[in-house]
């Protein structure tokens, strides 16, 4: 479910230049300089951009990728229609991120943990308090590390080089038109 959400987010951008993701695999998306500049202004802007989310998953290397996956799962959960689907997704989120036996357990305050019985009567905002805790953890910890990471800095540098190259080509085309008339 969670990888599908990230994959669906990633498909919103047209394919172009070859860029590697946080795991070194080729990425088929290209971001404008404005994009990485936007990522640097706030975690909210980063999480709104599918390519930003893909790159923010550098957390996998830091063993805290579960935070962004939990946050994404909660965002998808809020859009769920129908009680049966909501119950299924709530249980999946609980079993994946919140139970004592969770495969990708997130670190939330003990008193905020949900009791498994609440899964029988799910509602779109049932994970909101926990999602807010994880968001703040990412905002004040992971996000600042991300902005200093090689993944972000190299991506920004390559965009700046691409932008400068593009501007030089545009100037050359304009000069060519002037001299050819």
The best one-word shape is: elongated
Total beta-strand segments = 2
Order of helices and strands: HEEHHHHHHH
How many strands, what sense, and barrel or not for the largest sheet? Answer: 2 strands, antiparallel
Structural class: mainly alpha
How many H/I helices? 8
Strand order of the largest sheet: 1-2
Intertermini distance: 58 Å
Average of pLDDT: 77
Assembly classification:
single chain
Low-confidence runs of at least 5 consecutive residues: 2-33
Helical percent range? 55-70%
Rg over CA atoms, rounded to whole Å, is 20 Å
Strand content: 5-15%
Comma- or semicolon-separated keywords:
G-protein alpha-subunit binding; elongated; 8 helices; 181 residues; Regulator of G protein signaling 10; mainly alpha; GTPase activator activity; 62% helix; GTPase activation; RGS; two-stranded antiparallel ribbon
Write up this protein.
With 181 residues, this protein is mainly alpha-helical. The protein contains eight helices and two strands. It has a two-stranded antiparallel sheet. Strand 1 (15-20) and strand 2 (26-29) form a beta hairpin. Helix 5 (65-78) crosses helix 7 (128-148). The longest helix is centred in the C-terminal third of the chain and has 30 residues, at 150-179. Residues 2-33 have low confidence and may be disordered. One of its GO terms (molecular function) is GTPase activator activity. Residues 42-152 form the RGS domain. Residues 1-35, 158-181 are annotated as: Disordered. Residues 25-35 have a biased composition (Polar residues). This is Regulator of G protein signaling 10.
């Amino acid at each position: 479910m969670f990888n599908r959400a990230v994959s669906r987010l990633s498909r919103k951008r047209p394919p172009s230049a070859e860029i590697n993701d946080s795991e070194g695999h080729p990425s088929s998306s290209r971001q404008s300089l404005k994009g990485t500049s936007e990522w640097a202004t706030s975690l909210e802007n980063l999480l709104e951009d599918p390519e930003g989310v893909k790159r923010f998953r550098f957390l996998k290397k830091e063993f805290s990728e579960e935070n962004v996956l939990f946050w994404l799962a909660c965002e998808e959960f809020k859009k769920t229609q129908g009680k049966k689907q909501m119950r299924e997704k709530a249980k999946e989120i609980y079993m994946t991120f919140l139970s004592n036996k969770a495969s990708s357990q997130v670190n939330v305050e003990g008193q905020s943990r949900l009791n498994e019985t609440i899964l029988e009567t799910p509602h779109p905002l049932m994970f909101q308090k926990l999602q807010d805790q994880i968001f703040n953890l990412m905002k004040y910890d992971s996000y600042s590390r991300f902005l200093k990471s090689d993944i972000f800095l190299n991506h920004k540098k390559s965009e700046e080089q691409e932008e400068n190259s593009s501007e030089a080509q545009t100037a050359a085309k304009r000069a060519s038109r002037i001299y050819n008339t």
